[in-house]
Amino acid sequence: MGGVDGAAAAQPADDEYRLAFIKPARAPSGNAGSDWLMYRIAQGPNVINGYRRGDMASVTTEVEKIVVGLNERRLIKR
């Protein structure tokens, strides 16, 4: 009978979105402030770059919500 191997189920699928990194950044053009962070969300070879203001913890929480939403949307379309 077919099943999913536990190790395979624990590994993210290649087509899932994931948070690649968050790092301090200069303010985007036309914006002020020194509390900017740049993030990258990856899906295989595709990337989404974005900027958020705030501290690392709050920006990480917000970007993780974006990743969850993208993955939920991806699953619904199948």
What does this structure look like?
The chain has helices spanning 6-10, 56-76, and strands at 18-25, 36-43, 46-53. The chain is an alpha+beta fold. The longest helix has 21 residues, at 56-76. It is elongated, with a radius of gyration of 16 Å.
Helix/sheet category: alpha+beta
Q: How many strands, which pairing sense, and closed or not: the largest β-sheet?
A: 3 strands, antiparallel
Radius of gyration equals: 16 Å
Instruction: Give the N-to-C terminal Cα separation.
Output: 24 Å
- Could you list the spans in which at least 5 consecutive residues all have pLDDT below 50? 1-11
Fraction of residues in β-strands: 25-35%
Shape category: elongated
Strand order of the largest sheet: 1-2-3
Could you give the order of the helices and strands? HEEEH
Overall pLDDT metric: 86
Number of strands: 3
Work out the helix count: 2
Q: Roughly how much helix do the residues carry, as a percent range? A: 25-40%
